[in-house]
Design a protein that fits this description.
single chain; 278 residues
C-alpha cells in the first residue's frame, strides 16, 4: 500500500495544477506580510479598528502571531478553492486520461486503488496547510518576531507570547481535518464522472451554498446549520478562546471525521461497482 500511495503522490505532483495552491499561498501571504510591514502599527490598528477608540496598545502588538492569526481569519475560507483542484482530479483524471482499464488490470484490488488515491489526496491537503503554516507563522515570526496576541470573540482575550505557539500548531491540525472534508467530497464526486471539471465546480458550489446558508439569520436556515459540514469548520478557532470548549471541539471533530469516512466509503462503493469501459 505504501508503494501505491507513493505512486499516487508522484502522479499528483507531476501535474501543474497541483502547484497552483502552493504558488498562490507563496505569493499572497508574503504580500500580506509586506503590507503589514509597510503599514507598521497602523496595520495592527486597522485590524483591531473596533477597539482603537477604547484601548491604548503598548508592546510588540504587530508580531508574527498577530499577523498569522489575521491571515488564518482572512484566507481560511478561500483554501477550499485550492484543495478541490487536486481532490476532484484524483479519480476523474484517470478517466480523462483513459487509464482506468490499465489501473484495474493491475494485480491490486479496487479497494487498494481507491484507498491509495484517497490517502494521497489527504497527504496533499496536509502539505498545503503545512505550507500555509510555514508562510504565515514561520515567515511572520521571522520578520516580526513574537509577542502577545489579542483576539476578539465575545470578549477580548490577550494571550502571553509563551502561550500561543501550541495553539497555532493545534489550529493548523484542525485545519487539516477541515480541509480533508473538502478533499473527501471532491473525491466522492470524482468517482462519478469522467472529467475533473464537474467535481471541482460541484464541490465549490456546495461549499459556497452551505457558507451562504450558514450566515443568513433566518429560523429555517438556523435549523439547517447542524446538518451542514461547513458549520463545523470553525473548530480551529477554538484554540484562540479562553477557556477552550473541549467538548464542542471534540464533537465538531468527530462530525467532520464522520463526513470524511462517509465520503470515502461512498466513493469506494461506487468505484467497486463501476463498469470500466476505457
Amino acid at each position: 500500500m505504501i508503494k501505491l500511495i507513493s505512486i499516487e503522490l508522484y502522479k499528483i505532483f507531476s501535474k501543474w495544477r497541483t502547484y497552483i495552491g502552493f504558488i498562490a499561498i507563496g505569493l499572497l501571504v508574503p504580500l500580506i506580510h509586506y503590507a503589514f510591514f509597510m503599514a507598521g502599527e497602523k496595520g495592527a490598528s486597522f485590524a483591531l479598528r473596533n477597539l482603537g477608540d477604547q484601548f491604548v496598545y503598548t508592546g510588540n502588538l504587530l508580531n508574527g502571531y498577530f499577523i498569522s492569526n489575521f491571515i488564518l481569519q482572512s484566507l481560511f475560507v478561500h483554501i477550499p478553492f485550492l484543495i478541490v483542484l487536486v481532490g476532484g482530479d484524483l479519480l476523474a483524471g484517470e478517466a480523462t486520461g483513459g487509464t482506468y482499464r490499465m489501473l484495474v488490470t493491475r494485480p491490486v484490488s479496487r479497494f487498494q486503488i481507491v484507498t491509495s488515491k484517497f490517502i494521497a489526496g489527504i497527504i496533499y491537503t496536509a502539505l498545503l496547510i503545512f505550507w500555509l503554516a510555514i508562510m504565515s507563522l514561520g515567515l511572520g515570526l521571522l520578520l516580526f518576531g513574537s509577542g502577545p496576541l489579542i483576539t476578539v470573540r465575545s470578549k477580548i482575550i490577550i494571550f502571553a507570547s509563551d502561550d500561543i505557539f501550541w495553539r497555532f500548531i493545534c489550529a493548523y491540525g484542525i485545519a487539516i481535518l477541515n480541509m480533508s472534508v473538502v478533499t473527501s467530497l471532491a473525491f466522492l464526486f470524482s468517482s462519478f464522472v469522467q472529467n475533473a471539471i464537474g467535481p471541482i465546480v460541484t464541490t465549490m458550489a456546495i461549499i459556497i451554498i452551505f457558507l451562504i446558508v450558514s450566515v443568513i439569520p433566518i429560523d429555517f436556515f438556523e435549523s439547517l446549520k447542524p446538518y451542514l459540514f461547513t458549520n463545523y469548520f470553525g473548530g480551529w478557532n477554538s484554540f484562540f478562546n479562553d477557556p477552550i470548549d473541549k467538548q464542542k471541539l471534540i464533537k465538531d471533530s468527530m462530525v467532520l471525521l464522520a463526513h470524511i469516512v462517509g465520503f470515502y466509503g461512498l466513493a469506494l462503493l461506487i468505484f467497486q461497482k463501476k463498469d470500466i469501459l476505457s
